[in-house]
Amino acid sequence: xxxxxxxxxxxxxxxxxxxxxxxxxxxxxxxxxxxxxxxxxxxxxxxxxxxxxxxxxxxxxxxxxxxxxxxxxxxxxxxxxxxxxxxxxxxxxxxxxxxxxxxxxxxxxxxxxxxxxxxxxxxxxxxxxxxxxxxxxxxxxxxxxxxxxxxxxxxxxxxxxxxxxxxxxxxxxxxxxxxxxxxxxxxxxxxxxxxxxxxxxxxxxxxxxxxxxxxxxxxxxxxxxxxxxxxxxxxxxxxxxxxxxxxxxxxxxxxxxxxxxxxxxxxxxxxxxxxxxxxxxxxxxxxxxxxxxxxxxxxxxxxxxxxxxxxxxxxxxxxxxxxxxxxxxxxxxxxxxxxxxxxxxxxxxxxxxxxxxxxxxxxxxxxxxxxxxxxxxxxxxxxxxxxxxxxxxxxxxxxxxxxxxxxxxxxxxxxxxxxxxxxxxxxxxxxxxxxxxxxxxxxxxxx
Length: 447
Prior knowledge:
By secondary structure, the chain is of the alpha/beta class. The protein has two domains: 7-215, NAD(P)-binding Rossmann-like Domain (Rossmann fold, 3-Layer(aba) Sandwich); 231-446, NAD(P)-binding Rossmann-like Domain (Rossmann fold), CATH 3.40.50.720. Helix content is 40%, strand content 12%. It has 14 helices and 13 strands. The protein has helices spanning 7-18, 33-42, 55-61, 72-81, 116-128, 145-155, 195-206, 218-248, 253-260, 284-294, 300-328, 355-365, 399-403, 419-425, and strands at 24-27, 47-50, 84-87, 98-101, 134-137, 166-169, 188-192, 212-214, 336-340, 369-373, 407-410, 429-431, 444-446. Helix 7 links the parallel strand 7 (188-192) and strand 8 (212-214). The mean pLDDT is 95.
């Protein structure tokens, strides 16, 4: 006897997932969605990737990847075997057993959650929703998003969560550029909207991931991802503040952290930088602070960390000005500055929320000229936040080019940069990543 209305749906989905016959649809073929879709196809799931940008399906169906964590050589066999297909035709969602939402969750200009992509995607799914489907949100958001935003949109069809379809949340945990972990090897936190949904969502991810961790509700799963990123944001803010304090004391914060890291318990190293970048850490804490206000709770600690991290580009530019004035009696106005790296982290081409772009804007607002070199970002792509920078291209890192600038500002410490040549040819290097410390050169200063 079916005691639970969703039991029959869960039973069918569990069986299909175990047999790898469930048809998977992944919406949003960016840095999260594409690796997930490829991981699903690799274990045998027939997988369709959906994106509103028609150029992405065209390139993917030709076996061409545009994301460095998904090599074209890994994608092409899946396309040729018919295991993976990309499309901008969302009516094909009707044929999917599992639909996963991997779309952006940015902040508005007032640093409030912008769930427009999630809401629009939920409406698109609702237009094609079928009985018996499982819908999973992976986009990072505040606790309650699955229950309060996604499920109500889907239920406007007249179908009910837990009775006619199943829903759940599983936070993405991608770490681009981390060679030790991939999509499939990072433990996967999952939760369904009800016990049958949890059973189905676990069966889906069990086939793809080395380990799944089931928690009691989508709210908890959403809180897990927010907590992970708040933890990093707060600790990075702490070392960024320590950097400014220790600089005034004549103490090298990188040497301090390196020595503190020798303690085998009670300490975990975090490193300062020019500001936060990426799709998670600069954004996700503000989702929690916004939601907390609904409960009349002030998140002072988290908001202070955000203020410190947001202030870092201004601190770096101030240090740059000080060193130009102190060493060369030269103002920033009229100077030529070369930024090394515009990606938000080392050894990847992901430039989302990169502090480099804010640095360029601040430098040029003071009358200087800024160029950049980044082997992973040959050209700055259009963005809503920094539209005026679109189209700028990476310059060659030759001795003559380096010597033509008044200062080189190390923003991202890519491994494939010849720092010895930079130090040897630059008038001055302002290093925000401690990338040039080994050279012990007089023309290198830290910021």
